[in-house]
Amino acid sequence: MDLLSPQVLALGAVACIILTFVVRFMKKDSEELGIEKKQTISLVEIEDDMEDYEEAPVVEAPVVAQDKGMTTAKLLRMNKSQIENYGRTLDIELDRRMTKANMIADLAARSE
């Protein structure tokens, strides 16, 4: 069967007609159901909106151990075993079964 045969061309034309009706039907149904097309937001609109907001003040993370200068932000980047090893350098034994946040809070409370 050749690609330019009458049967292939007729089949392509029928497929185009069917697709046209399907698209029109879907568009009509979506309008009746109240489905609206999403609006696109341009970068210029976002930048204009950002000018209205004030920047939040930068707050320094509290220091967990004064002698080591370790902040909670640095501790949050560590994994649990690293936090446990750091606690041992301060002679504080931590339980790795706790969550990382609880380990940091326990370390902060014991180091004060």
Strand order of the largest sheet: 1-2
**Largest beta-sheet characterization:** 2 strands, antiparallel
- Determine Rg (CA atoms, Å): 32 Å
Q: What low-confidence regions span 5 or more consecutive residues with pLDDT below 50?
A: none
Class inferred from helices and paired strands: mainly alpha
Listing every helix as H and every strand as E from the N terminus to the C terminus, the arrangement reads HHEEHHH
Counting DSSP H or I runs of 4 or more residues, the number of helices is 5
What percentage of residues falls in helices of 4 or more residues?
Answer: 55-70%
- Total domain modules: 2
Oligomeric status: single chain
Give the amount of beta strand, in percent.
under 5%
**What is the total tally of β strands?**
2
Overall pLDDT level: 76
Alpha carbon gap, first and last residue: 86 Å
Shape call: elongated
How would you briefly describe this protein structure?
By secondary structure, this protein is mostly helical.
